[in-house]
Amino acid sequence: MPEVIQELTGLQNQKLTQVPPSAIRAFDNEISAVDGIIKLTLGEPDFATPEHVKEAAIKSIQDDDSHYAPSAGKPELRQAIAKVLKKTRGVDYDWASEVTVTVGATEALTATTFGLLNPGDKVLVPTPVFSLYFPIISLTGAIPVMVNTADDGFVLTPQRLETVLKEEGSAVKAILLNYPSNPTGRSYGAELIDQLAKVLQEHHLLVIADEIYSDLVYDQEHASLATRLPEQTILISGLSKSHAMTGYRLGYLAGPASLMAPITKMHSFMVTCVNDAAQTAAVEALENGQDDPLEFREAYRRRRDLMVSRMRKMGFEMATPQGAFYVFAKIPAAFGSDDFAFAKRLAKEGRVGLIPGSVFGDGGEGYVRLSYAAADEKIEEAMNRLEAFVQTIN
Questions:
Q1: Torsion over CA: 361, 367, 368, 370 (sign)
Q2: How does the average pLDDT of the chain come out, rounded?
Q3: Domains present along the chain, CATH in parentheses
Q4: In the 8-state DSSP scheme, what is residue 62?
Q5: Which residue of 222, 231, 301, 315 lies most exposed, with the fewest beta carbons within 10 A?
Q6: Which one, of 220, 253, 252, 239, lies nearest residue 289 by Cα?
Q7: Three-class secondary structure assignment of 120-175
Q8: Confidence at residue 18, expressed as pLDDT on a 0 to 100 scale
Q9: H or E stretch including 53?
Q10: Which parts of the chain have pLDDT scores under 70?
């Protein structure tokens, strides 16, 4: 194996040295060595991509659809996205200038932050939240400001938002809001979205709305900030969760043309364009697979109810998830509040893998996240093992 020359040892971007690697992936890798472990760690749907979507991808390859697509995405896909957003959000986006196709929602977030933020800008991030947001913001030179929502049932209230804005001052330029939430599964009803929109409008904040789980809402209709504030919102979504297409890496953005221009410019520098087969599959999913998420959603609802019921009987406390496919549970008092220690011990002794809540920022301490995107039989066995582990300790 080649060894770097001495003069290049330690050469790397200094901003990158200041951010840790993905804590979720790191912990998952750490416990993967446990023999026979059942992992409920990652947000990976266990369902197969719908057959008609796979067939569209296969046909794309067979038809030699293998050339550079437009950087912003194939026109037919951007048109399909605009049509869906018109139907679901009530916003009439111009597909040619206000919709961009990305390599998953992660690239959409990265292109947005690098396209719109400047060093010193503050970005409000309600926590606990997907930990990747923090390095994505920090690498631009902007400053993520954690807003702990644990005392408010893991949702940001308009009152708390007003308080934080007064405390942080005029450097606050944006808010990054994910709902339904990873890791808590909590979401925002229409009334609360309206109240938040009023505050955000008054303060002229950029809204980065990560709505990747919007098709997986169980007990209420999804309410979008893009509907209320289309003129100041960048909407981010994709097909990874709704159509079990994580490996296709198909995401998208929509927003006002003047904001989308620098985002799309950054996107073109990063990836040039998304691969053709994935885009063709996405067209099929959006045009002919509107009902595909319904089957998944009902399965997730059933799994949620099973996991919540079983864990509450074991002594875990949690707010009932309203969407996505995660349970965010408070560790029983008998185990203390060290979520990393609990998760490591459970992995080693109970052979169940979950993610410590601390990796999701302020408010996650003493909690653990479990994904119920796993198969039913795995969830059943994981709950049996967890129950046995808890009883042994008790």
A1: negative
A2: 96
A3: 6-48+292-393 (3.90.1150.10), 51-288 (3.40.640.10)
A4: H
A5: 231
A6: 239
A7: CCEEEEEECCCCCHHHHHHCCCCEEEEEECHHHCCCCCHHHHHHHHHHHHHHEEEE
A8: 86
A9: helix 51-62
A10: none
